[in-house]
Amino acid sequence: MAQKNQIANQSTVKEFLLMAFSDDRDMQILHFAIFLSTYFLALVGNCLIVVAVILNCHLHTPMYFFLVNLSLIDTCIISTIVPKSMAISLTNNTQISFSGCVTQVFIVVMCVTAEVVTLSVMAYDRYVAICHPLQYRLIMNWDACAQMAAASWISSVMHAVLETGVTFRLSFCASNIIEQFFCDIPQLQKISCTDTKVNEQLILILGIIVDSFMFVFIFVSYGYIFSAVLKIPSVQGRHKAFSTCTPHLAVFSLFIITAVFSYMRPKALSSPTLDLIFAVVYTVLPPVLNPIIYSLRNKDIQEGMWKIPHKIKKLIE
Q1: Which residues lie below 8 Å from residue 92, measured CB to CB, with a gap of 6+?
Q2: 73 closest CA partner among 151, 161, 156
Q3: What is the pLDDT of residues 251-290, one digit of tens each?
């Protein structure tokens, strides 16, 4: 009872302090330059994909429809995190408002969930295209694609609302220093002055149910895909299929492993440096790599990008 009264008497946190990458000015400028370059590449790459697919009718297929969804998700997540981190390096002001922190948590959880679901749907699309090519148009019709995309966003928003709600029901009345370059749920749990067992159990249960299902689903899909690819008589055909699928599987594995580790790791394995590296890998790296893997190596997308100025000129005229 005395402990509760003591907590009630403490001032409630109204803002948080994010972690700067360094206190050295030269390192801060270097961090700003690296993150600016990364953000620019991600923004340009993902925006070009969206514009190319919208303006070119021959790209209006399920595969590119989900690729646009992935690009929008990547643009959203990197725009939520990186600009604030760059501002910290420039101004040396690490403050973020309570409402700003809530917004970051909501958008990050929503986008990470949507990315996992979208990557799973893209794996299913490739499975149907390679293993059941004659039924592809029937299975992956536009109604089915719209329903899968809607289900992805709705489930992601619901998950984000749940995680954000249970996180900010906690009291923050002592330390307001977050040991991360954005508002991250595990770091917020660390500085809470109330019991976080329910929150940790919720993350664990949801992680086991959702992440395990998606992980198994993707690897089973790719198991069937690789089995079908190995039956292709042409060496060139097998190489093309493997070169398309393997990078997707590699990026998904990197994304899901680092995200799961960040949210579900034992406290004994937690350290500021490790937490920072894993956070960068699952939030900043995918928006940069996805355009390269799914698009810049794709001749259809490349042709679509080259046609953008011509298409825009025709629209203006």
Answers
A1: 20, 28
A2: 156
A3: 777 777 777 777 776 666 667 778 888 888 888 888 988 8
pLDDT class of 1 with cuts at 50, 70, 90 = very low
Tokens coding 263:
């949210």
Query: Per residue, what are the HEC states of 184-238?
Result: CHHHHHHHCCCCCHHHHHHHHHHHHHHHHHHHHHHHHHHHHHHHHHCCCCCHHHH
**DSSP code at position 12:** P
Task: Please give the backbone phi and psi of residue 274, each rounded to the nearest 5 degrees, phi first.
Answer: -65, -45
Residue 278 contacts residue 262 (beta carbons within 8 Å): yes
Distance CA 152, CA 285 (A): 21
The model's pTM: 0.86
Residue 168, classed as helix, strand or coil, is coil
Return the amino acid letter for 52.
A
Exposure on the CB side of residue 223, measured as CA atoms within 13 A: 6
- As a residue count, the chain comes to 317
Q: What's the pLDDT tens digit per position in 143-160?
A: 999 999 999 999 999 999
Strands in 12-157 per DSSP E: 15-17, 95-97
- What is the amino acid identity at position 104? Q
- Whether residue 63 contacts residue 304, with contact meaning beta carbons closer than 8 Å, is answered with no
pLDDT in tens, 167-188: 998 888 778 888 888 998 888 8
Torsion angle, CA of 271/36/99/208, rounded to 10 degrees?
-50
Report DSSP letters for 46-103, one per residue: HHHHHHHHHH-GGG-SHHHHHHHHHHHHHHHHHHHHHHHHHHHHHH---EEEHHHHHH
Cβ neighbours of residue 236 closer than 8 Å, sequence gap 6 or more: none
